[in-house]
């Protein structure tokens, strides 16, 4: 269903959205990555622009064209994404972490290409934890009343894991989707449940990523209404 003309209910609001997936380099030609396409984050950016927001999109490795009307920043790694998001969040009314941030990065970066040697097994790759950007943004709240939204893709016990994650991260809303065959990665469509810190649950049926994005903005706008 097309929404038609939309109410500019995000006018005057600065929204920061991260999208895509970080890549953590091992050497100049290799990285640890993930399958996030960035399409959900871009749908959030387009719909936020349509609803009147000033949009900062921090993208990682999507290869997607910049959405019209958004300020786009580019990040490669989790540490770069963190820096860009924290800076943009300083004057944001909403921060939405739709990016898939690598939990770990290689402990060491080889400045030259890693070569194999005859008759030798490869050395194991040591990893270290990346900072949790969502937990950091939600814990610090650069502005009073700032709304923080996270995403989670789960394969098992989707709602129970989602509730636990919402609490652990300290965010206001968590969009939880089940990872499955045709769902989520690279697809144009998505199905999700949006969990709120106040216990509310909003089911979003299988459909375009724009529809899920608009539901997120509906829930955000309702929260602005309560605190304005
Ligand atoms: N996230 C983040 N920084 C990280 C990892 C995740 O900001 N280092 C954010 C993601 O952008 C997403 C949310 O946290 O909005 C949930 O990501 P997810 O990978 O589901 O959560 P984790 O805490 O990493 O849990 P898991 O062990 O299930 O991967
Ligand atoms: Ca993770």
TrEMBL record:
Q: Where is this region: Phosphopantothenate--cysteine ligase?
A: 15-228
Give the pathway annotation: Cofactor biosynthesis; coenzyme A biosynthesis; CoA from (R)-pantothenate: step 3/5; Cofactor biosynthesis; coenzyme A biosynthesis; CoA from (R)-pantothenate: step 2/5
Show the GO MF annotations. phosphopantothenate--cysteine ligase activity; phosphopantothenoylcysteine decarboxylase activity
Q: What biological function has been recorded for the protein in this entry?
A: Catalyzes two sequential steps in the biosynthesis of coenzyme A. In the first step cysteine is conjugated to 4'-phosphopantothenate to form 4-phosphopantothenoylcysteine. In the second step the latter compound is decarboxylated to form 4'-phosphopantotheine. Catalyzes two steps in the biosynthesis of coenzyme A. In the first step cysteine is conjugated to 4'-phosphopantothenate to form 4-phosphopantothenoylcysteine, in the latter compound is decarboxylated to form 4'-phosphopantotheine.
Protein keywords: Decarboxylase, Flavoprotein, FMN, Ligase, Lyase, Magnesium, Metal-binding, Multifunctional enzyme
First and last residues shown, out of full length:
176 to 403 of 403
Tell whether Acetylation is among the UniProt keywords. Answer: no
* Cofactor remark from the record: Binds 1 FMN per subunit.
Q: Which reaction does it catalyse?
A: (R)-4'-phosphopantothenate + L-cysteine + CTP = N-[(R)-4-phosphopantothenoyl]-L-cysteine + CMP + diphosphate + H(+); N-[(R)-4-phosphopantothenoyl]-L-cysteine + H(+) = (R)-4'-phosphopantetheine + CO2
Which organism's genome codes for this protein?
Streptomyces argenteolus
- Keyword Flavoprotein recorded: yes
Q: Which family does it belong to?
A: In the C-terminal section; belongs to the PPC synthetase family.
Enzyme Commission designation: 4.1.1.36, 6.3.2.5
**CC cofactor:** Mg(2+); FMN
- Protein name in UniProt: Coenzyme A biosynthesis bifunctional protein CoaBC
Show where the DNA/pantothenate metabolism flavoprotein C-terminal domain sits.
Answer: 10-221
Q: Write out the residues that bind CTP.
A: 103, 113, 131-134, 151, 165, 169
């Amino acid at each position: 269903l097309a929404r038609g003309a939309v109410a500019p209910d995000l006018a005057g609001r600065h929204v920061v959205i991260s999208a895509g997936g970080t890549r953590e380099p091992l050497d100049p030609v290799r990285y640890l990555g993930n399958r996030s396409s960035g399409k959900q984050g871009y749908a959030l950016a387009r719909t936020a622009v349509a609803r009147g927001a000033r949009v900062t999109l921090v993208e990682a490795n999507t290869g997607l064209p910049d959405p019209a009307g958004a300020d786009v920043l580019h990040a490669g790694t989790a540490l770069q994404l963190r820096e860009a998001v924290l800076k943009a969040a300083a004057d944001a009314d909403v921060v939405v972490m739709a990016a898939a941030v690598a939990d770990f990065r290689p402990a060491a970066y080889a400045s030259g290409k890693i070569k194999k040697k005859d008759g030798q097994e490869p050395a194991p790759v040591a990893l270290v934890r990346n900072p949790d950007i969502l937990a950091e943004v939600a814990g610090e709240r650069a502005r009073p009343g700032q709304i923080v939204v996270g995403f989670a893709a789960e394969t098992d016990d989707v709602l129970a894991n989602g509730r636990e994650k919402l609490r652990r991260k300290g965010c206001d809303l968590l969009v939880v989707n089940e990872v499955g065959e045709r769902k989520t990665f690279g697809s144009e469509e998505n199905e999700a449940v949006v969990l709120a810190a106040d216990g509310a649950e909003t089911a979003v049926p299988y459909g375009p990523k724009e529809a899920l994005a608009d539901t997120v903005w509906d829930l955000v706008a309702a929260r602005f209404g309560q605190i304005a």
